[in-house]
Write a structure and sequence with these properties.
heterodimer, A: 220 residues, mainly beta, eight-stranded antiparallel β-barrel, 1 helix, B: 420 residues, seven-stranded antiparallel beta sheet, 24 strands
């Protein structure tokens, strides 16, 4: 068990794999690794939102079961979105992006290391709208590229979410609902591949009940 | 773990101080204040004013916050907007359920459609597309839809004057609509819903809903069976058309006419310019409002008319649009739009009316004051002449009647020509 080095409260850790946790009592960002425990500073409080997902919510994608271990909220000039960090039973991560009432489920994709669009993105050149990437026979085209700032976080995450943290996100979509996200934070670039879906498709359990909106039959 | 405070969230309008419910907190980006019409940015905790306005505009058949069950799911109305193109104006309502996301209700002359944004996209060209293995064909020429009044919450940046290029494809009543704004394309599937079902689901007041255009009782007659009836049908059709025209002229009544002009400013709305005072001398009369802009290009002017009765204070509104664009592409020079607008306001009761207009000029493709190549700033207003007259004739209704009257004889003739 780990206690918050700032306020002393016990940290609820949902993931053994992630080394950054936000203390739910004092909003301190705590780095905990084999080298020790460190207080990195305060993270912004997440503004209230209507998301039915919360830490601990369980989801299913095909045969794999996931649970929600953390969340980052990103803001850009045209709005904001949530990225929920999911963890499978074997500890492998996935992200569930939540925006416009839709969900994008993605897993890390290592197959694109030498794609010229990805190489250019890694060296700081953004793709053009409409530019294509071919992945496993699926043609994906760049639909939007945005620079975002971290607006807050909760739970366990793989990176620090202090105020001022920036992200460049390039979304690619296919005709079939498949999607690819390229993300760049400073020097580090990652590619995430998955598909758009509705909440119902994820067979969620342990959703947050929202005042005035009884949980629908289909989601119970 | 701290549990976040439970909704519903509220925000305070920085312009008028009104408290507004935020029904999709965390998703909503723009909010049109229901009290003063100002546009707010609600994407961050500190609410920012985007555009001031001092009048909540436009009446909508549905109120914000109304709940109703459609397709076995409950929806709340959280946003409403008026939109228009060359063929008319319609209303769009944004529906929201935190567990199912967003849907749309689109109302055009009393006909309703339920819209769902597509996650898997249709494939094809400008004439036809394929979606989930079925072919949809284009309905009309591509249109530019302009956003008018907005109120409530939206999950994207929305503003009066937004322009989207729209193409719709149809198959057996269902429509796939493609909208493009600044290179970003969204597809929406629209399915028709009966007006009574909407009324019942949301508990709407029927008097506030537009009525669907009347259906012709001529429909349903078997085609080309009673061949001998054809001359009789033509004659009867002609007779009905003439009698209706005479009747229309008779009920149109005496004519009163006023003329004035308005200097529409760029990027803002000039409100409440009085054009004149109009006398309606019959129990009920139509009023025609015409607008005409002089030589201008790549501009458009939104005109919002209000005829306010001196006796009752009741306002009757209408919309006008004068526009003209030109450019050059791979097919050569093109021009689009009409510098004239001509609308008919439905039956006004006898009385004296002050005619007001709100006008806003816009530069295409971007708002702002136009700057000429030599560095001079162009005139900051665009003059529009406005004429309002009573005794207008509802020509479009009459033409629709003529089309309906002759559609069956026409089809029969076509059938016979093809057979012979």
């Amino acid at each position: 068990m780990i206690n918050c080095p700032s306020c002393g409260a016990a940290l609820t850790l949902r993931s053994a794999a992630q080394v950054y946790s936000t203390c739910s009592y004092c909003q301190s960002l705590v780095l905990h690794s084999a080298l020790g425990i460190e207080d990195l500073g305060k993270v912004a409080v997440l503004p209230f939102d209507m998301s039915p997902i919360r830490l601990g919510t369980r989801l299913r994608v095909e045969q794999d079961r996931f649970h929600v271990v953390g969340r980052v909220r990103w803001g850009w000039s045209g709005g904001a979105w949530n990225e929920w960090l999911l963890e499978a039973g074997d500890g492998s991560p996935a992200w569930l992006a939540e925006a416009m009432g839709m969900y994008l489920f993605t897993r890390e994709c290592h197959a694109l290391g030498d794609d010229p669009v990805v190489v250019a993105f890694a060296s700081g050149r953004e793709p053009q709208l409409g530019q294509a990437i071919l992945l496993d026979g699926t043609l994906l085209r760049a639909t939007d590229i945005k620079a975002a700032q971290c607006l807050g976080s909760e739970g366990d995450l793989p990176f620090a979410t202090l105020p001022g943290t920036e992200l460049v996100n390039a979304d690619f979509r296919s005709r079939t609902g498949a999607a690819l996200s390229l993300q760049r934070q400073g020097e580090s670039v990652s590619a995430w591949f998955g598909h758009f879906c509705e909440l119902v498709d994820l067979e969620p359990e342990g959703l947050r009940e929202i005042e005035g909106w009884p949980l629908p039959e289909a989601l119970r | 773990m701290s549990t976040p405070a439970q909704g519903p969230a509220t925000v305070v309008c920085p312009h008028c101080g009104g408290t507004i419910d935020l029904r999709a907190a965390g998703y909503s980006v723009n909010l049109g204040c229901v009290y003063c019409g100002s546009l707010l940015d609600v994407s961050r905790p500190d609410v920012a004013l985007i555009r001031k306005h001092d009048r909540a505009q436009a009446r909508f058949a549905m109120d914000l916050g109304m709940r109703g069950t459609l397709f076995e799911r409950e929806w709340a109305v959280i946003g409403a907007m008026r939109r228009k193109d060359n063929s008319g104006s319609w209303r769009e309502y944004l529906l929201y359920n935190p567990y199912f996301g967003y849907r749309w209700l689109v109302e055009w002359e009393g006909e309703w459609q339920f819209g769902t944004m597509l996650l898997d996209l249709p494939e094809g060209d400008e004439d036809a597309v394929t979606w989930r293995g079925q072919r949809y064909e284009r309905q009309w020429d591509p249109q530019v839809a302009v956003t008018g009044a907005v109120t409530g919450e939206f999950y994207w940046r929305v503003a009066n004057g937004d322009r989207a290029r729209c193409v719709s494809f149809e198959r057996a009543g269902a429509t796939l609509s493609r909208e493009e704004v600044d290179g970003e394309v969204t597809w929406t599937q629209l399915v028709p819903v009966d007006a009574d079902e909407i009324k019942q689901a949301f508990g709407l007041d029927g008097r506030r809903m537009s009525r669907a255009p009347g259906r012709s009782s001529l429909a349903g007659k078997p085609l080309g069976v009673e061949n001998d009836d054809l001359p009789y049908m033509m004659l009867a059709g002609l007779g009905v058309a003439i009698v209706t025209l005479l009747f229309m002229v008779f009920i149109a009544g005496p004519v009163d006419r006023i003329e004035g002009s308005v200097a529409a400013p760029y990027g803002e709305t000039l409100e409440g310019v009085q054009i004149g005072t109009l006398e309606v001398r019959r129990d009920w009369q139509f009023v025609r409002v015409k607008a005409r802009g002089r030589e201008f290009d790549n501009r458009w002017v939104d005109l919002d008319y209000a005829l306010v009765s001196r006796e009752t204070g009741q306002a009757t509104g209408g919309y006008g649009l004068v526009e003209h664009y030109s450019g050059r592409d791979s097919d050569g020079r093109w021009t689009e739009g009409d510098r004239r607008s001509n609308i008919l306001l439905g039956r006004l009761p006898r009385g004296t009316y002050d005619v007001y207009v709100d006008a806003a000029a816009h530069v295409w493709p971007r708002d702002g004051v136009p700057i000429y190549a030599n560095g001079w700033v162009a005139a900051e207003t665009l003059p529009v002449t406005i004429v309002a007259e009573t005794g207008g004739l509802p020509w479009s209704n009459w033409f629709a009647l003529v089309v309906l009257l002759f559609i069956w004889p026409g089809l029969i003739i076509w059938h016979r020509i093809r057979k012979s």
